[in-house]
Design goal:
It is a single chain. This protein is of the alpha/beta class. It folds into 2 domains: about 5-150, Rossmann fold, CATH 3.40.50.720; about 155-250, ProC-like, C-terminal domain (N-(1-d-carboxylethyl)-l-norvaline Dehydrogenase, domain 2, Orthogonal Bundle). The chain contains 10 helices and 8 strands. The chain has an 8-stranded mixed β-sheet. The structure holds NADP nicotinamide-adenine-dinucleotide phosphate.
């Protein structure tokens, strides 16, 4: 892939641009409807940027890294048919790309937030293409960034992406809930940090099922009821607590 254009200037575009450039891949241009965001990435990376569809340059590879709801719209912007166009979504099929070009998907399984410094070499990349040769080329490109590159069809990619929702989005939401409870009780979120660190570190060395502790795991209904009493006035948290407690109990039913 001699030249790459990135469409979108959000979290994934920010990090993919950086990862590709760090590995001497030729990112030529960033396109985004909001010029200031394309400019931010473009200037930081010393590459050209535009908000005009008519100015999108010819390249070998177009990476559409925009909101899932806009992928189809973006896919109409590329007027060439002898190019490869990929999106970066785990949960959208390759068929959302509408155009006469060759199509593919380059899905990185990681949580990206703009501006963070992060490792790229351990990020699993999942690739799907229409054509075998494009798969080879994309694998080669992703291998420049990461040691974890896999070919995966949409049905499996969707499952993997959903695992990301369980393992990251929901867990993060639990941190937000715990942080809110700390705050309402005049405690800083920092008090949870050693626990959060140890939880994540344990997960790298133990099976999650073995690592589970707490009242639901022990079947300690006295403690569970105390917590439910505390949550009486917050029906949303009460429901979440009950659903998770029941789920943990059922997981260990036959132990
Ligand atoms: N974030 C992650 O951790 C992550 C991880 C793996 C894969 N992905 C996938 O990567 C893709 C990009 O995610 P992201 O987190 O980078 O998104 P994001 O930060 O929310 O960025 C969204 C981008 O899409 C553009 N956009 C949104 N709606 C649009 C519309 N209606 N018309 C034109 N442009 C529109 C935004 O343009 P403006 O700047 O003009 O608003 C922005 O450039 C998604 O398919 C996502 O599923 C995300």
């Amino acid at each position: 892939m001699n030249s790459i254009v990135i469409l979108g200037a959000g979290n994934v575009a920010f990090h993919l641009t950086r990862a590709l450039l760090e590995n001497t891949l030729n990112v030529r241009q960033i396109f985004n409807r909001t010029l200031s965001k394309a400019q931010e990435i473009g200037e930081a990376s010393r590459i050209s940027y535009t908000d005009k569809i008519s100015e999108i340059e010819k390249a070998d590879l177009y990476i559409i890294a925009c909101a899932d709801t806009a992928i189809e719209e973006f896919s109409h912007y590329i007027p060439y048919d002898d190019v490869l166009v990929v999106h970066t979504s785990g949960s959208s099929p390759m068929s959302v790309l509408k155009g006469d070009y060759r199509k593919g998907v380059l899905y990185p399984l990681q949580t990206f937030s703009k501006g963070r410094t992060m490792r790229y070499d351990n990020i699993p990349f999942f690739i799907e293409t229409e054509h075998e040769k494009d798969a080879q080329d994309l694998v080669e490109l992703a291998n420049r960034i990461s040691n974890e590159v896999h070919l995966l069809p949409f049905e499996k990619r969707l499952q993997v992406q959903m695992c990301g929702v369980w393992a990251n989005n929901f867990v993060n939401h639990m941190y937000a809930i715990a942080g809110g409870i700390c705050e309402r009780n005049g405690l800083p979120f920092d008090v949870l940090q050693p626990l959060i660190h140890e939880t994540a570190e344990k997960m790298l060395e133990m099976e999650p099922k073995q690592a589970q502790t707490g009242p639901a795991r022990r079947g300690d209904d006295i403690i569970i009821n105390r917590h439910l009493d505390v949550l009486q006035n917050d029906s949303r948290l009460l429901q979440i607590y009950q659903i998770l407690t029941d789920s943990i109990k059922r997981e260990y039913d036959n132990d």
